[in-house]
Records
---
Amino acid sequence: MRAGSLALHKRFRSQGQRLREGVIRWITRRHRDDGSEATLGRDRIYILPTRAGYTLLAILGVMLLGAINYSNNMAFLLTFLLVGIGHNAIWYTHRNLLGLKVSSLPTTPVFAGQPLSVSLRLEDTRGRDREALHLSIGEYTSVPVAVPARGQQVVSLPLPPLGRGVYRLPRQHLGTQYPLGILNAWSWLGLAAEILVYPQPVDPGAAHTGLGDEAGPQRRQEASTPDHIRPYRPGDPPGRILWKALARTGKLHIRETVAGGRDTLWIDWSSMPASDTETRLSMLCHQILAAEAEGRAWGLRLPDQILPPGQGPAQRERGLRALAEFRFEPIPLPIPETPRRTKE
Amino acid sequence: MNRAGQHRSPELRGLELALLALPVAALPHAWHQPPWVTLLVAAAILLRTWLHLRDRRPPALGLMALLAAFAGAMTFLQYGTLFGQEAGTALLLVMMALKLLETRNRRDIVIGLFLGYFVVVTTYFFDQSLLIAAWSLLSAWLLTAALVQVHAGRALERWRLAKQSGWMIVHALPFMLILFLAFPRVQGPLWGDPQRDEVATTALSGELNPGDIAELLQDQTTAMRVQFHDTVPPPPAQYWRALVMTDFDGRRWQAEGGQSSIEVPEADDPDNVVAYTATLEPTRVRYLPVLDYPVSLPDNAEYRDNHQVIRDRRIVNRIQYDAEADLSRPPGGEEALSSSARERALELPPSAAPRSRAEVALWRATHGDDDRAIIQAALDRFAAAPYRYTLQPPTLAGDVTDQFLFETQAGYCEHYASAFAVLMRSAGIPTRVVTGYQGGEWMQRGEYLRLRNADAHAWNEVWLDGEGWIRVDPTAAIAPERIEAGIGGLTGGEGESVPDFLRRDGLGWVQQLRFGFEDWRDFARFRWESWVLAFDPERQRELFAHFGLDATDWRDVVTALGAGFGLLAVAALAWAGWRRPRRPLDAADRLLQRLSRRIERQQTGLGRHAHEPVVTWTRRIKAARPDLAPIVDAFAEHYNLARFAPARPDDQAGHLMALRRLAASDLRKPPVGQPAPRTT
């Protein structure tokens, strides 16, 4: 009986949630794709009283009854003054969001299992100080931030660690209860931002010893044959600076491995000593990081794509992105949506 | 929930301001609450402040519960209940203080601040003065500022909080005004008898007993204030009738309510009518003082057959009423006095005042049937020595009339009115005593008459066939200055002490200043009371009627509220439009304006009109002043290039420089033989 009613309750709750989610989807259908920037206009700001707001309403009702009962004109005056303040709070709270420009900032990719954060930039264009704005995505809510008049402020929302993949930013919620906390004004945003989560690096050597032997001779061989010297460019790994040449010529030079040369390290899907996709990707990830740390040129072979050899931050990013995207269609961040409770 | 260190967390931002705002809101209660409440509230707030400054945690919940139970018990011991105005307020104050003491999070502060608004409202149970109104605004300001800080998410600068919350209150004032005037008012109370514990106020008593008015005579509090619509009647004509006393038991006169209602007589001559608005302090009785003789009364009052005006309910709040009086005409002259009424007006206990009766018998013998001569004889008697007017008469024992007339011969209005009535009744002339107010202080500032309780007065009315009830004031015979200049006209005889507040002449400048200040204060108080506190369902009905609306019809109420808020919305939009910063004129526009101004100064009518295109304007100038053609043509060209041609910044600068040069060029080339057509 009791278990049954609990299950019923749960079912209603989940149905209510589904209904609620549907309503929100319907409301926000126009703002689903805001691109990278959106301005909060009247058509997308919603406002409702908070629990404190209803409490104040009840208190004002009691005050009004008292004023009538005691025929006390001063009580009428104060009650109506507070009614006026409460009413105007609708306007104040709404205005705190109105005309705010919100843009999504590119998110820094992370490795699986690392905490990530999403950042939006809030910008005032109307010469008005904005207070206590909080960004929520699903059940995660940021600390309140303020935006100075004609200024901007970045609000970051730390999210929990995720698994490897490419994610879209789900619907964002920008809300405020300033100044009185009796009303909650909010807007739903559909700003786009790509969130890359690289695989968690796993040392294949630690998993399988055979690999170390294979990599060892290659590295030695490579170290003995400088094949190309060119002047130093910013961003080049310091490990490859020719210090002797510097002493001789007074100029910075580095040794560069020619792409496609015989010293190129091929990081290969098929040679990873694991059978499941994610572990393989993790190992590939480790290999890329190791190659980059050593300043070697490397190429990546995946079952469905080949990354030509190269080296440096851009190559590293290309490689890691390929791993993150590998057999992964972009999905919204899997963030639980809890029924939003307005806080006092 | 209650980790150490959490109490100083951002959650408690705003607590400092709440710790300031709540005591401010509660301060006026200190004068009306038993000392233990004040002490408990002060202690709780001080303790919380100390804990907060020391970064300590609030007391444990168990202790708080104990304190709350203690406060409840104390309240119950004090008042025998936990409800009602006084007990409820005490409990509210204590709860507010304890809530503040136990504040742990933001929600607690918000609840404390909401309670703070309630605390402000309960102040009005005890005091409704203008000062309290100002204090309430201050409290509301601070409470709102604290609420803003609580929700700001960061520590706001003090001036910013002050400004923000100040504007919130200013913006709310129009709402307050509209709702105050148009919100449907019903006559309270909705439950209980809320006036039960209201402070009793001075009022004329229903009995006249030597010594009664004497108490009032020392009472300088205001009884009523009157504004005359056009004519201000002279002081000797200002008799405010309140109670009519017909029954006499030999010592004490008693008021009677009258048997039935009668029509208010019409004025004989409209020019003689004095219209006025009276603001009456709560008296807790039903009679309305009206100027003699009333010809028009407020709707909720009736005119009784003994010429007393009775309101439909006790006057428990300050009320305002409009009435009219015809100063010249006593009521009821046309009809004869009914035999029962005559009998009543002649009634005298057989044993009362034997010496007086003997004297009256002598007068009758002298004057025969001439009632007027007998009245005059009585007045003459009072006017002659050794009768004197005094506010400190000797006490009377035995037969009050005889003792006063033949032995003490000193007294004030009551004594004279009572003795006169006895004399008249002995002579067979129907007589009654009327009490009310006479005199008052004319307040130059605000132009209103202020009647204090000290202006209470008693006089007589005698019935003369064919004329009706004629007013006779025996006090006028002994102390005409009392009637001429009011109670303030008394200078105090030998060794008499006149109440302090009546001495207005021959004072030092400090005193003068004080009285000047008093006048101002009374004026402000009067305005406050007549405009705000006296606004009741009755006044609201009149206000609605002013606009052709009916305050009891909900559709009209909706109309009024809608019109009020509609006007407010229009005003707000207009304000917003006016406040929107206009686009700053760019450099080219400013130069255009400069040139236009200079040409206008040269020749009126050639200035550019606000929306005139530059091309049209140049054409107009060239027609009137061909000599300016090179300048204006060049200007127009550079202007158009500078404003509308997409140009590189350095091009733009070149055009602007040319414009600047042209705008400053010499315009003084007098037109030769060319009439300047005036264009408009």
---
Amino acid sequence: MIKASDKLKSANEPVLQFTGNWLIDLGILGFVNLLEEIYNWNLQETQKRIKENEKVVYYGLFPFAYICSEIKRKNSKIPKGLIDDFANEIYKKEFKSEKEIFDFTWENYITKAATELWKKKIIERAINKRKNEKFVKGTPKILKKKIEKVEILGKKIIKENKEEIKKLLEKSGRFQKLEYEDIKSIQSHSKKEFKKYGERFLENAVKLKEIMDDVDEYLSNLWAREVVGNNNILEERLKFYRIPIDNKYYKNFLFFNYSVNHKGQKEKFYYTIASEINREEILINLDKTINKFLESYDKASNIYYTPLKTEYLIDIVPYLFVYLLCFDRAFEDYKNIGHIVFYSNDVFITYEINKRLKLRKSKSEEDLNSIFRDTWQTVIDTIIEMESWWVLENLYLIKYTDLKSDAQRFINVEYMGISRLQATILLDDDIRRNLNQRVQVDKNEYRWLFEEFIKNRPLTSIILDHLILRLNQRTKQRKVQPLLYALALEAELSSEHDFIHLFEDPMSLKLKLDDLVPRIKKSRERMDMARKNIRRLLSEDIRENKVPHLFSIIRRQNKYSFVNSILKLIIANPEKDKKLIKHLNDYIFHQIVQNDKAWIHYALGLFTGFIGG
Amino acid sequence: MEYVKKPILMKDYDEIKIYTKKAFENIGSESYRQRLVYRLLNTATVNNQKDFFSSLLRALNSRKDDENVKRLSRKLEWLFPLSPANFEKVAYSIIMGIMAVRGE
């Protein structure tokens, strides 16, 4: 069962290593993130703990952390100190088998952690649902009676104290029934506050509060008595005691399935960790239930001929399903960008990069631009610090927008690999900083230059769209340097030094690449100089007048028309600084007239001198 | 007119510009050259080779014994006749050569 990691142990290697399959690897990352979220362990600590006692981690600490994390996702609280207690306690015990570790964890700690969430869901359902859906099978009669009391009193309050209750709950409009949230809100207010609304309201509200406290206490006691520490829950209560967790990714997967009772949840969770594919059919194939990137059998019928069997995988990757369950925890959600993870083939670097990004994100939550700036800054800084610049060439940015809740499919997943050429360019601070910008291209549309570059999309068309907005004064963006860097980059890549040969001699490619960054910078400098000189040469009025004409010539890609118009403007200003005119003359002659491939980039570079910024 | 396809290199355009600049250093005043550049720019826009060269050669004719003028004339003679695409590049090399005179 623990073959692979046993082998590694003897070689004194880290126990958690990436496999090369990004789905599994991100699962491993998610697993590490999960343990960090709950126990505050970093990757090194997790590695150490697994080495010391693998079974305790996977059969005890993991399931507890997983359920706690799901409970937290539902905005419910874990009793204070429970996590620390558990993490201490489990190491004191001695276990004979994995099953014993799991049972101990489930019965004594997972159940304790789930108390509040379970209570909340039971009461919420009883109050909010319609008559025949209020109670699941096995609900104690006492509870039904207590809920009935709550409802009667709720109706009475609505009848007698409608206005007062509306004020207390800050509600307006029609108000006919107290919902669960309303009752919880009343329960959280003090008697003093009730008094403000008169004696009659006070009496009713206090009564409601008392009954609710009573329901709470009753359920807490019931759960503590019949579920916590009990491995033999009454058969008829099993459905009633189902732990109310579900997961967007694994909506109907084993223990998340709504039809599965408490005992079933416990069993199925254990089988998942232990990869017992003979017990649970769902674990046999790595199909769409587990891997959301796969099609369903209906849509891709050839899967029937080549089902992706997990039996081979679990020999290579022990605890495969533990990692797959944690897949979604590898991603970090960025507002307006989506869920992102940076993936490289090294667990340490991937962990480090994503961790730092998370820290940055929490600091710059509100400012979208700074997230953009920081993202790649962090990635590159980490890579340089860890002296692993080679990783950049093996780095993938994986991004998805969301998961359709009905079909459980990803919406818009993108993988961005970075080529050696791109990596070389991005390692330069100036170029990276300037490309790491969002450029507005339409009313509510922005393009991230960096992303477009990595995706091998043309940047010039983005700059043209952006310039249209600027000319029409429909954007507040004023920066010019990112535009010049993008133009210089494309000019150099499209000029005679081509990088399109796939099988080029590595040595000659290296020479070319070494030369590339200085050349891009030189081009950018030239453009900037031309931009500044044309601004110095021509008055603001002339520049403003000429802007539409020049821009339309560039868009029509009419090189000589552009040159002609610019030369006429220059010749009309003979009394200006001669050095400046000489520079412009050289720029236009060498970069535009003589440059058939990339003249438009240089023309646009010069054109930026005509616009504000 | 039939064009003989000549391989015109970057070097050739550079030479045309340099020879033009040197030739025009001794031709006319600054305002004369300015007027000439305007005229040449206007003929270049409409791709009018005949008018372009007639204006240019008239200007060069005033110093036909100048060594630089001779070099430019020989270069143009070698290039002529030009295809419309080549003409534009040659024309702007000449114009920018004239403009470079006052840029010194």
---
Amino acid sequence: MIVSSLETSSPKLESKGEEKKKKIPPIIVYAALAVGLFGISILSLKFGSIQLSIGEILKVLVLGQDSLSELEVPHSILVWNLRMPRLVLSMLVGASLASAGVCIQGLFRNPLVEPGFIGVSPGAALAASTWIVFSEKILTFFPAELRGKESFLLQLCAFAGALSVSFFLHVVSKREGGGFSLVLVLAGIAVNATVVSLLGFLSYLADDTQLRNLTFWSLGSMAVASWHKIYLLGLVLLIVVLFFPVLARGLDALALGEAEAFHIGFKVRRIRNLTIVLASLLVGVSISICGNIAFVGLIVPHILRMVLGPGHRTLLPASLFGGALLLAIADLTARTIAFPSELPIGIIAAGIGGPFFLFLILQAKRREGEFR
Amino acid sequence: MKKLITLALFLCLPASIFAEAKDLKIVTLNGTVSEIVFALGKGKLVVGNDTSSLYPPEALALPKVGYQRMLSAEGILSLKPNLILGLEYAGPPEVIEQLKSAGLKVIIYPGLPGVEPALNNILAIGKEIGAEKEAQKLVQDIRKKHSKIAEKVSKLKSKPKVLFVYHRGTGLAQVSGTETPADEMIRLGGGINAVSGFTGFKPITPEAVIAAQPDIILIPSRGLESLGGKDGVFALPGVKDTPAGKKSRVVAIDDLVLLGFGPRLGQGIEELFESFHPKTTDKK
């Protein structure tokens, strides 16, 4: 098994770089992430159609619109209506996906799985798409505000989709004795293939407008940012963060192995179920808001594991901030690189993530000594 | 007193906060809308448009704000427009909302295919950009062409079955069912859509093509190019075994003339009628 040596709990993984790994104290990592987040916030508010100076940004942020001069009102609109919602939403989505990545990696005890390519995110996107196509065709007796793209039931469906896939994969991998198995990865590939075909079938049934919504999901975009969506995802993320201490203890125990965790007094099944529900909630809600963005849940935890070590007590919160930072950078890139047009953020995430993933696999192989 | 001052200030505010209200600076978000603005002689006011704005050449040369369904608010704002015109396809809806909230005048016209909606859009846009006379003249011209052809169509004894094929670059060619601009144009030009079992577009299948038995294959010019000319059309599954394939009848018309429902609508109807009924046009 190539990847077995990379397990979060694997002694091999730490033996090689243990001194290096534990060198950086968590406080420094947090500080660096905080500086990064502050920096990207300034840049995101600064760049765009009109470049604003730091002074102008601060003025708009501090003063109310009434006390601004006529020339400064546009700045306030740029900051509050266009740039701030995108910035905050991309941070929330990044934080959600990276945290979900840590949860799923801990659950399957495999640092190379990611909600995107074991089928959890596609499952959410499929459920959301199904909702979009069928809620307007079949649920005609529903009030209009409960149908279609603007309904909160969309998020609920996406959550259910993510949950079903996670649960299915969990059952599959449990048969294999938990932890990493080739079966899990293969099951993930099978789920993905099934989802792609079902999405194809849906696009056949959808009308033109619905079809646009479906294509939008496959690419992801922060152009849809609005304060309403920010509150929704923010609330979900807050709920999950409240569970972080429980999750961290539980995932650390799981890393020892199911039997060991059970013997030192953990309710293994409860931990697993909680992890599945929370990770699916994060993935489902973020995907239903801004589309399918892959790889964030893989890159961020991986880099942070290298500098912090595999302990979930530091890894979870650090991934939360790291994900926020990565996606904020990706969104700024997406909206400035092809100006005045805009690139879908999913393309940028996959463009960085794909090669990175390949690099991880090759590294794992090399550690196995198969590259001699 | 304070209220008065506020009111006075409010009245002094320019119409849009991103540009002076003196001159119109227009961004058009759709190929047909762009064409209308240029046809009404106001092309100089356009500062940018979307990637579907291909005609006239002057419109093609302007800065592009992206594809009409994947717009970016900041990109449009950077051109400092004070009027934004689009059809209902413009989106995502959130971006349109953001533009409105930035104090811009955004007008979205219905995009339904049909002569009347198309003429109404021309009149409405003319009114908006101060070219009412030009718009009325253009509408009259289109009406004249349309009614002339409509009269000829009403006298027809037989109408050809027309299969509309849509093809862009790679991937499957698609055929048009009902409720599409192509379906409407076939009817206006005195033909019958050979496919009527579904609405919108569906990928082409040999059985469906053979079952439809079209007398004519209708295709937009750019689609013909991407298939590599007429031979490419006959190489499509099933096409060779239809009456159209045997008589090698392919009609290719410029995309925006054929499907745009814009200023060249009259010309499109005429061209279609002539190519559907070459004999009748010879006689008259």
---
Amino acid sequence: MCGVCGCGEGLNHSHEHDHDHQHGDVHEHHHVRAHSHSQHHHHHEHNHSHGPAHAHAPGLTPARMVQIEQDILSANNRYAGDNRRYFGERGILALNLVSSPGSGKTTLLTETVLRLKDQIAMAVIEGDQQTARDADRIRATGVPAVQINTGKGCHLDAHRVGHALESLNLPEKSLLFIENVGNLVCPSAFDLGEAHKVVILSVTEGEDKPIKYPDMFHAADLMILNKTDLLPHLDFDVAQCIRYAKQVNPKIRVLQLSAKTGEGMDNWLQWLRAELALQGIGYA
Amino acid sequence: MHEMSLCESILQTLEQQAPLQNYAKVKTVWLEIGALAGVEIEALKFSFDLVVKGSLADAAKLEIIEIPGEAWCMPCGRNVPVRQLYDECPLCGSHQIQVSGGDQMRIKELEVE
């Protein structure tokens, strides 16, 4: 076998040895003829790469195949893993709130923090394409909020959330709300390291949203049906909406509430307390 | 349009891998995209051409290997094909199904120089 590249071609090597050498001489080996397989070069000035994907260039073109086998979102998922570890080690419950624009997310948040801020340490990461309007509304309640403007982007990613965590410096056993950009499509694909995605759907939007945007309802663990105070004025079919949601995600839980009137808010606060308690248990 | 972000992630991976795998130019990218991954293939192709412009993958070809959706049906106790997340089990009509395949988005292979 050829000892240079292990290619299997080894016949007709003829080595002329000068056996008259003295001690300390170096053997000189001469190949009588070149290897017959044209695509392999054995000149040592040739820059062989012996990396994991090393391949001899076939024929004249140096093109070759490289196996990658990597998730497209692997970089995001690594950052999400870091965030999740950060939350786990501190017993912090992080929730990723997702919805279409205008579902009442920010009102739900301000009403929630007003009810809980004396009992639980809380903070909010606000994601919006532009402006700090929502973060300003949260800060008015006395709870720290960091605004991330995604600009042209349509969702938050784990890397940006990680940086926001540095400036928030959350205490242990606190509750972190990540208010994602209003968009029922894109945020579903991006893990931020949160414990749960919570999807908020208002009853003014139509009961078929769960099957129109199935990825988001599939990714969420809890659906909040908001603005229930408006139900008497609408022909929104609550039971059908819940059926659609369970069709996409049989395990999804559903809470009906009105952040504006406070109806149903107690169940939501109870869910938050229970999840926060669980978050502090069993993280290795 | 999270397809744009996906393409930016792809380009990032191609740039990271270039010195490791010893290439300077990417000619073709093969992606595995599951039917349940929530990716619009046409939007992905459109975004890809824009994102790779002027990079080491300028004018690279994008080849998509589509992976069919699959779910585990609890009542049937077996894997069944599904086309959408809200599909019912084609055997028993139940919605008690758990996605078991076809939700991936992977960079599979590259043709490089």
